[in-house]
Amino acid sequence: MSSETDLTISDSPEDDRYVVRRAGEPVGFAAYHHVPGRVVFTHTEVHQDIEGQGVGSALVRAALDDVRTKDLAVTPECAFVAAFIREHPEYQDLTQ
63 to each of 40, 73, 76, how far by Cα in Å? Predict the structure, then answer.
């Protein structure tokens, strides 16, 4: 099982995605595009062999935290991101 401490998450703006890596290898991403004042998350994916281990949640949490520091809003077109925001009220203000 992966722990969040094994993961590195970074924005890759040239690819329009946040990437999660484990031991330096990419294991998932959260794709997005920008519209004025907003980041639209369109798709989140983690490798099948690590699904259910919290990697997707760690990825989305880091992405949303980064968006907050940039003072942008979020549109969660991706079902995973939308569910994460519904389940974590501390991020619901980002969708306003």
Answer: 11, 12, 12
Helix axes 55-69, 79-87, angle to 10 degrees: 80
Query: Strands, E, within the chain: which ranges?
Result: 7-12, 17-22, 25-35, 38-46, 73-76
The helix/strand/coil state of 94 is: helix
Residue with tokens 């062999």: 49
Tens digit of each residue's pLDDT (9 = 90 or more) over 32-78? 999 999 999 999 999 999 989 999 999 999 999 999 999 999 999 99
Instruction: Give the DSSP H/E element, type plus range, for residue 79.
Output: helix 79-87
